[in-house]
Amino acid sequence: MRFGCEVTIARNGDRRETYRIVGEDEAEPSRGTLSYVSPLARSLIGRQVGDVVRVGSSEAEILEIKF
User: Fold this and answer.
1) I need a labelling partner for 60 at 20 to 30 A (CA). Which of 1, 18, 25, 45 fits?
2) What range does the domain containing 34 cover?
3) Residue 1 lies in a domain
4) 39: which residues sit within 8 A by CB, 6+ positions away?
5) For the whole prediction, is pTM greater than 0.85?
């Protein structure tokens, strides 16, 4: 996973969310874009499908990555 990718995660086993990792000036989480320096994006970068990452006080599994 790297800058520019689109990633789908599952939080709490069933809540799916999809984000594109973008620059700071393009980030708008409510529209599905995350800054590469955000805590969630930083925990995703370098990971792969099937990895589980810490998201705040919970965890999320990476379901899909589109390059």
Assistant:
1) 25
2) 6-66
3) no
4) 55, 56
5) yes
